[in-house]
Amino acid sequence: MKHLFLLLFTGLTLCVPMASAQTSSGAPDTVQLRSGDSAGRSAVTAPMQIVRCADDALIYPNPAGNELNVLYEATSDIKNIAVYNLIGKMVAVYKVTGNSSANLNLDGVSPGIYFVRLFNSQGEAVISKKFTRQ
């Protein structure tokens, strides 16, 4: 089955959203990259295995209603998740109880644009994602 999704290159690493990085059987997926030029010529790479990036997270739904789901790699050592408004003020903080996902209740967060930041056990912000609260 062919899927079309946005890929992010970081140095020499191919990063894809974590939910796209494995098939339902748990086996790694492979991709072929196609590039083109203005003359219509294209080239296809040899199949390559997708590697999930530990420094990324998936948030959904976006825009969010009363809840925001956050998925991240268990190896990221995430301990806290904070929500910041556009001027950098923290408006909510959540202690993570799961090892690879969290469900954030946004009842106390007014509609607007925010950033969710994931913090590791050393208190370092390791992942930041933008979302909209409806």
**Mean pLDDT over the full residue set:** 77
Q: What structural class results from the helix and strand content?
A: mainly beta
Order of helices and strands: EEEEEEEEEEEEE
Molecular shape: globular
Query: In terms of per-residue confidence, which ranges show pLDDT below 50 for 5 or more consecutive residues?
Result: 1-27
Q: Percent helix among the residues?
A: under 10%
Q: What percentage of the residues does DSSP assign to strands (E)? A: over 45%
Note the total helix count. Answer: 0
**How many DSSP-defined strands?**
13
Rg calc: 17 Å
Report on the biggest sheet. Answer: 4 strands, antiparallel
In what order do the strands lie side by side in the largest sheet? 10-9-12-13
Distance between the termini: 34 Å
Provide a compact summary of the structure.
0% of the residues lie in helices and 47% in strands.
